[in-house]
Design goal:
Oligomer: single chain
Low-confidence stretches: none
Strand content: 15-25%
Distance between the termini: 23 Å
Radius of gyration: 22 Å
Shape: globular
Number of strands: 13
Structural class: alpha/beta
Largest sheet: 9 strands, mixed
CATH superfamily of the domain at 63-256 and 271-350: Aldolase class I
Strand order of the largest sheet: 9-8-7-6-5-4-10-11-12
Mean pLDDT: 92
Number of helices: 10
CATH topology of the domain at 63-256 and 271-350: TIM Barrel
Helix content: 25-40%
CATH architecture of the domain at 63-256 and 271-350: Alpha-Beta Barrel
Order of helices and strands: EEEEHEHEHEHEHEHHHEEEHHE
């Protein structure tokens, strides 16, 4: 069991208290040993655990992710696909065979089908007939596409709307410069983006998706930028700090203690100032953590954050190859040197997710206070990339953890005693007097002694 003593202060700094938290049972107790919430136990099923030694297989998908290829018309410095070896590209000739063979391995209609690139609109000649055939076959399935928006036009927009697509447009606000030229600064591209937004946003089918990295750390700045571009009710999707998949991702990570503390201070300030409320991730994380407390969610019910460890979440290419996730190809090896091609749809039961490691098999995850929020970071990273991703994820999730506890109790965590790493106990650098930006104090608490 991993139990933590959470030292907290109230908003007026004149009263402190402690809570006890168990990340394995989701028990949060006050100073007197009483639950902070009335617990309504839910009957959770244990998550299945995958590793190179005991890999999970795949079954008929509830979520089907179709990789059209990894080509893109942009070169984002932190892109998870940037240095992934490309497999042979699929093309429109592959569509009929792929769709005609679905019944052999998709036994019930998927709840959701996602169309992925690279940039999926680079593959327009393949995407269009594929989606039309799938919509005819699965009229009630949710369709999703993530796009950078630069290749949109009125005809494509009409088609996306008619086909019932949910669209996430990737835009990092003021941090867009690491992606390339901003399509919002090109009149033709901007007009096409705004046309699609006006069609889909009122139907709840479009979000603007931002990620955070070293050159784009403020959710407030991102929200201010996107509100100016899209209006006050813009929905901001994704919204988490990047996972590093290569050297570019490493360079965009939080590598030093000072960088990690500075990020956490800014993040908690943004949350507590109500300046990032358009981010879905804020509400999702706080709600999910509170629900874990309310329902006593055990750690053994927690799968990986991407959900691609689930047997019924499948990524495939149009040749029927089953891959770890949509961000890799059959030509690539995972960091553990296993092929990212984990099987073929013709023998789905023999697919083996040997590229990935469940959080319970990692060194630090079981003893981490934000386990129930982080859910194991990227499941196939290893070595230095894993270490950097773990640091990014901890610093990204601990402000949500603190905000959720303040929401529940009115007290703000600042120090966590427990089995986790020593450098993660002083959450916001207040005990050790680390103030990165004197103008952006995370909350009005002076340096304290433990």
């Amino acid at each position: 069991m991993a139990k933590f003593t959470i030292k907290c202060m109230n908003k007026t700094q004149d009263l402190g208290t402690e809570f006890t938290y168990d990340n394995q049972t989701s028990e949060l107790l006050d100073f007197h040993g009483n639950p902070v919430l009335e617990v309504n136990h839910k009957d959770y099923q244990s998550a299945q655990v995958t590793s190179i030694d005991s890999p999970l297989g795949k079954v008929s998908p509830k979520t089907l992710k179709i990789s059209l290829g990894l080509s893109c018309n942009y070169e984002c410095s932190y892109c998870s696909q940037r240095f992934v070896p490309h497999a042979d590209s699929t093309n429109p000739k592959d569509v009929d065979k792929f769709v005609n063979e679905l019944d052999a391995w998709v036994t019930t209609p998927p709840e959701r089908i996602e169309f992925w690139g690279g940039e999926p609109l680079v593959y327009w000649k393949t995407l269009k007939p594929l989606a039309e055939m799938l919509r005819n076959k699965y009229p009630n399935t949710t369709f999703l596409m993530i796009t950078n928006g630069s290749l949109l036009d009125i005809a494509k927009n009409e088609w996306l709307d008619q086909m019932g697509f949910h669209v996430g447009m990737s835009h990092d606000g003021p941090g867009y410069h690491v992606r390339g030229l901003d399509p919002l600064e090109n009149e033709e591209q901007r007009n096409a983006i705004m046309d699609l937004y006006s069609r889909l946003k009122p139907k709840g089918r479009m979000s603007i998706n931002a990620v955070l990295h070293k050159d784009n750390q403020s959710r407030k700045d991102i929200q201010d930028f996107l509100i100016k571009a899209f209006g006050d009710n813009v929905t901001i999707g994704e919204g988490s700090y990047i996972d590093p998949y290569d050297q570019g991702g490493m360079e965009s990570s939080l590598l030093s203690s000072a960088e990690q503390i500075g990020y956490r201070q800014q993040a908690i300030s943004n949350i507590r100032n109500n300046s990032v409320n358009n981010f879905n991730i804020l509400h999702q994380k706080i709600h999910d953590f509170i629900e874990s407390i309310r329902t006593a969610r055990p750690a053994n019910a927690v799968g990986q954050k991407c959900s691609m460890d689930k047997p019924d979440n499948i990524a495939v290419d149009l040749n029927g190859n089953v891959v770890t996730c949509q961000n890799v190809s059959v030509a690539a090896l995972a960091p553990n040197l296993q092929s990212h091609k984990i099987g073929h749809v013709s023998d789905l039961a023999s697919s083996k997710l040997s590229t990935s490691t469940h959080w319970s098999k990692r060194k630090d995850c079981p003893d981490c206070p934000v386990l129930q929020l982080c859910k194991g970071s990227c499941m196939f990273l290893e070595g230095g990339l894993w270490d950097a991703g773990c640091n990014n994820s901890f610093s990204d999730n601990i402000p949500f953890f603190a905000a959720a506890i303040e929401t529940l109790t009115g007290y703000i965590p600042y120090y966590i005693e427990g089995p986790q790493r020593e450098d993660r106990k002083d959450i916001f650098g207040l005990v050790n007097g680390i103030q990165i930006d004197k103008q952006k104090k995370p909350f009005p608490i002076p340096v304290v002694s433990v």
